[in-house]
Amino acid sequence: MSRLDEPRALALRLGDEKGEKDKKDDKEEKKKIAAPELTGGAAWLNTGGPLSLKKDLKGKIVVLDFWTLCCINCIHIMPDLAKLEKKYPNELVVIGVHSPKFDSEKLTSSIRKAVLRYQIEHPVVNDADHAIWDRYEVDAWPTMVVIDPEGNLVGFTSGEGNYELLDVVIKKLIDEHKKKKTLDERPLRFDLARYRESGDTPLFFPGKVVADEKSKRLFIADSTHHRIVVTDLDGNGLAAIGTGAPGRADGAFDAAQFDDPQGMAVSGDLVYVADRKNHLIRLIDLKAKTVSTVAGNGEQDHEIESRRLVLPVPATDIGLNSPWDVHLDGDKLYIAMAGHHQIWALDLKDKKLVPYAGNGRETIGDGALRKAMFAQPSGLTSDGKALYVADSEISALRKVPLDPDGKVETLVGRGLFVFGDVDGPGQVEGDPLMEKPEARLQHALGVVHVDGKLYVADTYNNKIKVFDLKTRQLTTLVSGRPFGMFGPTVFNEPAGISYANGKLYVADTNAHRIRVIDLVTKAVTTLQLKGVKPPPAPKDAAPEPKKK
């Protein structure tokens, strides 16, 4: 992103910690640049209509958050933005500017689901054609632009970890504009999407599912209900683990708390859970009916040194970074560490944790385990010889050997901005210009191995696809829209997939349900959940006064 207002942009990057003072002389006043209006969006969410900087938001400090719903870094800054909104409820308005990467992310319906899933409570504009992105000259997700109460650009910052910096700038702007009497401290209330879809369903954005054939049980990560639901394979409820409110607490089933739980691995009566937003690995003991923590200290790890650890460290002494899935192989629990773009390994015997594959760079690259590169790995499975990874941000399937001397291999996928919906051969060796047709996925989040084939939850294509490890061909098993865009939807961004007794169980995330595919007949049905109720509604569930 180019410098919008050089002196103030620099001040926002550095804050006031180094003693810089904002010189309010005539020269600087002349340099002020009016922030471009927020026009050109396809639709607005969490508000009754478009918002104008000059009219609706005049007198407010505005932070524009340029994001896209697939971006792990964008997801990570959401708690910081929520914290700032809570701290400055009458002075600050955050506006999410959703500028998409993937084709599927241009759809207002997809963004609306993401707003609900991530519990965003500020207005969001669907910048489908990047009109606002281009007007503000943004070049990275996430980017935050600060606008003062008079509608002038203050500066920008990009990436994670900028809470303190933004806090300093907002405080300074409040003091400055209180003195100038240009700050409007009257409260604003918005028509939030959650008032219209409260989550009063048995499941709410289930992210992952595990079918355990041996025990005839189904484990569902009821992610935005912040709990784990256990049923039998016919959908009869057996247990609901967690209070249903986001939090971090060990203990009995009815007192424990999760925050956006995702992937699970089952071993008898033990269930390991990737507690994504808490940056923890949790252990459910079904016999004792307790939840405990086995990895992570509860803090998100930002340090690059931690990504490149060589020697194992005690599992609960180190921060994790958005663990999205887990796979159990003997005494090793492999973790898809989406935030670090790596695969980690937890030794359950000595309780030590170490990065296993990936150097932490967010891109695609094959080779030796620690030199390979991933981009938001989000799904794991295995055939006993290798891990197979749904590497979501590069729309790829990757093969990671369990032999530490082996090499990482790409089966499908070419890079961060190569995606689509194409059946055909996997990556064609010796064709760097991609002149031959190759298979394409779009932000696939889930994968399961069955009899030499990988069944893939091709999330943004709303399909279930199959990759044959022998022929290296990718084909569509079930289309999410068999009769076109205006026909019935079979899947709505499926993110998790598992297998038992000739059937695939699919976490159909945005449809709040579990779908079942019979691999013989290809018939798709919805698992009817019996005895599974939503958790109690939050105390603040009643609608607030509506404002534009």
Short summary:
This protein has 548 residues and is mostly beta strands. Helix content is 12%, strand content 33%.
Q: What portion of residues is helical? A: 10-25%
> What's the end-to-end separation, in Å?
30 Å
Q: Strand arrangement, largest sheet?
A: 1-4-3-2-5-6
Helix count from the secondary structure assignment: 7
Which CATH architecture of the largest domain would you pick? 6 Propeller
> For the residues shown, what is the average pLDDT?
90
The CATH topology of the largest domain turns out to be Neuraminidase
- Name the shape in a single word: globular
Describe this structure in words.
The chain is mainly beta. The protein folds into 2 domains: 6-195, Glutaredoxin (3-Layer(aba) Sandwich), CATH 3.40.30.10; 208-526, TolB, C-terminal domain (Neuraminidase, 6 Propeller). The chain contains 7 helices and 34 strands. Strands 1-4-3-2-5-6 form a 6-stranded mixed β-sheet. A 5-stranded antiparallel β-sheet has the order 11-15-14-13-12, with no helix packed on it. Helix 3 links the parallel strand 2 and strand 3 (92-98). The longest helix is centred in the first third of the chain and has 17 residues, at 163-179. It is globular. It starts with 5 loop residues before the first helix and ends in a 22-residue tail after the last strand.
